[in-house]
């Protein structure tokens, strides 16, 4: 027994060392600690009026609607709840189309249960519905269920990309062109996979447009370093909010064809476009209309997810990728990789099914469904407008028009004194700005450096996919802080 | 428009080529086609008496209780349904402890919604509950939430292992000792990751025991080939059903310490032990009791999952690993890798929470919960007994006693004529056997070769985690087929 206790203590000590190390490691990423210890308090606790020893933190570092107080779509939650607990199917509180949908989905599950494994690329029924959705979205361009690979969230699907990019060192090391500014999670994921990242700059002066000149410039930097194989594009852009026009997409496709680059089109914000003069057009649709020289040859992967769009269900983990024109051999590699991945979350797959096939006019759930979706869309568009107005009135802030997505990425023209102080502290001025914003106003936002920005420029990313009330409070604090900060260093 | 149509057709053609290729590729894995086109028809459709053009297939290739007709645990499904659709929390049909649990879990979710991202290693509240569960299981040995990494199912966690095993070629290429027979999915996953697999044989004659002599023998084969870094163990075993004794575990730990091997203990069947004279003891508990020379040094990762155990929720995707004694640097790599993975399914995390902290005596849900769990346990134990009895009465079949897990892995002593015919067809005799079993009785099982077996021996894996009625039908078909097969080739 004595032995037991003493070794337990040793294990305990050891574990504490581990924890200690972990703390040290985390303190490097100081922000992470904040994440763990202070929860975002926009949410139910706040509404319950619980007193906190510190100001409620507003965490806008994630593109995560529910975290920021947005409500889930009832139809989505009702169908999933009914699939989980089929007795609810006969619950009169749930509309008949909820019941029918749940029954249909359960029939598509092995053993009639969401608790069974599915095929590793997803439930064939859901793959078919996604193919129909894509085809409808693209005005009839055919889509084939066999080319659709479902995964537990699009980031997981992204990891699959690595198979597309063989590992080699030296000048033949695979390179991938990535946008700057861009989606940092994806970049850090690529980093762990031994792929050379070749940044291309988006043009802030033109509203963060993606131009072929910038792609060419990036390509030139790779000479002798690595061999570029793929081009990653986010449309709509994160954090930029830029949405490409048809002409812009055509140009990029032509460029990819000339340079023999694999196109990775991250289109997860495809149904979050609110600019009046711009609509989302998929890479696949444009490709299909460019004639066989392109439509039969350019390799394309397109990503989508239930984390964004009208439902914002980040925690359910549902995403897919569609593979087009892939070399059969590569297709084989992807298929093999998926077959070692085990199956994607069934709940995420159900959410995808609803994304692909939402209630239609005439369905009992339609009025509520469309009112909820419309409300979210209106809120987002309104928030973007209000935020741009507020930002437009602040000294030292310029902001490009935003066409889609969840974010606004204003440029901060920070006073030389602030830049000096930041330099003395060994950081960029926008990082100092964000640290102070967190300390003083408990607003947690990430500086432009996190997403990448041109040397000498500074930015901050704001997520505006939140309730109108939260946004008001966010802007109130942001404005107060910004004026104070600018004054202090002027 | 003409252009549109024609390119659409081209895309269509192209897609069909892809499909064609896919078919060809699949036909290599002939079994997969069966999977896609014939669904398992043990399940609701069968109960509804739907007529099928073919005999209902019994698919026992997966360790998937719900697929095979087992019922979910009500408490699990009620809590998750209530988390998804909080109005149900006030549904009088759900017991009060369901409501309280759902409220507690929702408070642990950002924004009070299961639709929000969580930390990449999981919800801290769930990590804490898992640590308490592990510590209770191990008689008080401390467990620390910070060492617990939650993922979307344990297979995903398994992929993380690769970081533990640096890639190199030649004699310094990382090697991992893996059991034969073993868990094929894991093996094929490792294959894609450039790790050298070093098989060690389990001793069939001793009930598939794991012996240190066999580990040593395996290690000797690596000389000059690769450098062994890790030892993978399944306890309880899949497909063997063997459960290690304390002495056996101690021996393995001593071996790992001597040879400086990292221990990977796959303990996903830890609550599926039914032998009267054997109980599950975790590697961690044994390690903690072996004195500081071991408990402070041997690196150990232990895996667990909601896919097995009392709930069998494979589709929800919830698993975790606990890391013990890891080098802080390696811990850093794992942490970084997780932080690029995005978050695990929130629904899977809720299932883990319930696994860690199930209803207790006195709770309103307890009577139903314990009756359901008890029923499943009794069914499994009963199925194992009945299957062993039936197998024991068949000519040319020998079967080791089974102590835990979902499977029975009998040895088939097939007639020389069957072996000749198989050889002529370029396959092993147990593969021929399984093909014929599928063709003639629509029973889909995998041959021993899929899991690995000693040259010249033949086996088949049966999953017995199914309802008593399904098992009866399965055994009826299996028996009829086996007798016919043996007679045909005698
Ligand atoms: C451009 C982009 N792609 C992918 C993702 C991740 O999506 P998921 O939640 O499906 O992994 C995000 C999340 O913010 C994103 O901004
Ligand atoms: C030994 C073993 N480990 C892990 C798994 C996979 O578990 P999960 O569903 O959590 O990925 C299985 C599934 O059969 C298994 O047998």
From TrEMBL, chains A, B:
EC class (word): transferase
Biological or metabolic pathway of the protein: Amino-acid degradation; L-alanine degradation via transaminase pathway; pyruvate from L-alanine: step 1/1
Keywords: Aminotransferase, Pyridoxal phosphate, Transferase
GO molecular function terms noted in the UniProt entry: L-alanine:2-oxoglutarate aminotransferase activity; pyridoxal phosphate binding
Cleaved signal peptide residues: none
CDD domains linked to this entry: AAT_like (cd00609)
Domain Aminotransferase class I/classII large: 102-478
SUPFAM superfamilies membership: PLP-dependent transferases
Catalytic activity: L-alanine + 2-oxoglutarate = pyruvate + L-glutamate
Pfam families membership: Aminotran_1_2
Cofactor: pyridoxal 5'-phosphate
EC number per UniProt: 2.6.1.2
Family: Belongs to the class-I pyridoxal-phosphate-dependent aminotransferase family. Alanine aminotransferase subfamily.
PANTHER family reported for this sequence: ALANINE AMINOTRANSFERASE, ALANINE TRANSAMINASE
Subunit structure: Homodimer.
Record-given protein name: alanine transaminase
Species for this entry: Albula goreensis
């Amino acid at each position: 027994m004595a032995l037991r206790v003493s070794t337990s203590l040793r294990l305990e000590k050891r574990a504490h060392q581990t924890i200690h190390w972990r703390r040290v490691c985390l303190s490097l990423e100081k922000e992470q600690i904040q994440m763990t210890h202070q929860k975002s308090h926009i949410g139910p606790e706040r509404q319950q009026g619980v007193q906190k020893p510190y100001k409620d933190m507003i965490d806008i570092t994630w593109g995560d609607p529910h975290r920021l107080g947005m409500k889930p779509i009832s139809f989505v939650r009702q169908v999933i709840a009914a699939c989980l607990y089929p007795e609810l199917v006969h619950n009169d509180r749930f509309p008949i189309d909820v019941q029918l949908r749940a029954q249909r989905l359960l029939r598509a599950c092995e053993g009639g249960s969401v608790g069974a494994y599915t095929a590793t690329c997803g439930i064939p029924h859901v793959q078919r519905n996604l193919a129909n959705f894509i085809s409808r979205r693209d005005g009839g361009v055919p889509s084939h269920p066999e080319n659709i690979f479902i995964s537990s969230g699009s980031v997981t699907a992204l990891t699959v990309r690595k198979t597309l990019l063989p590992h080699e060192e030296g000048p033949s090391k695979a390179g991938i062109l990535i946008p700057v500014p861009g989606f940092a999670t994806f970049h850090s994921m690529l980093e762990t996979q031994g792929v050379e990242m070749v940044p291309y700059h988006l043009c802030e002066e033109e509203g963060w447009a993606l131009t072929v000149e910038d792609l060419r410039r990036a390509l030139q930097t790779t000479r002798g370093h690595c061999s570029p194989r793929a081009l990653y594009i986010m449309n709509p852009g994160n954090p930029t909010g830029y949405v490409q026009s048809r002409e812009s997409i055509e140009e990029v496709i032509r460029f990819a064809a000339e340079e023999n680059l694999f196109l990775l089109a991250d289109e997860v914000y495809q149904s979050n476009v609110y600019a009046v003069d711009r609509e989302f057009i998929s890479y696949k649709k444009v490709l299909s209309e460019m004639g066989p020289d392109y439509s039969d040859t350019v390799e394309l992967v397109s990503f989508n997810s239930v984390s964004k769009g009208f439902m914002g269900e980040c925690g359910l983990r549902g995403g897919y990728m569609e593979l087009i024109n892939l070399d059969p051999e590569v297709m084989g590699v992807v298929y093999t990789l998926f077959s070692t991945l085990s199956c994607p979350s069934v709940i995420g797959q159900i959410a995808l099914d609803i994304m692909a096939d939402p209630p239609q006019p005439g369905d009992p759930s339609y009025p509520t469904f469309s009112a909820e979706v419309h409300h979210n869309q209106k809120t987002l568009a309104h928030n973007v407008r209000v935020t741009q107005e507020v930002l437009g009135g602040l000294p030292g802030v310029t902001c490009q028009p935003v066409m889609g997505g969840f974010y606004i990425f204003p440029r901060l023209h920070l006073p030389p004194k602030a830049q000096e102080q930041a330099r003395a502290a060994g950081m960029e001025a926008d990082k100092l700005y964000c640290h102070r914003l967190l300390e003083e106003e408990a607003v947690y936002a990430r500086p432009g450096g996190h997403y990448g920005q041109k040397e000498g420029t500074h930015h901050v990313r704001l997520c505006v996919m939140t309730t109108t009330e939260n946004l008001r409070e966010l802007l109130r604090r942001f404005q107060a802080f910004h004026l104070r900060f600018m004054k202090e260093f002027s």
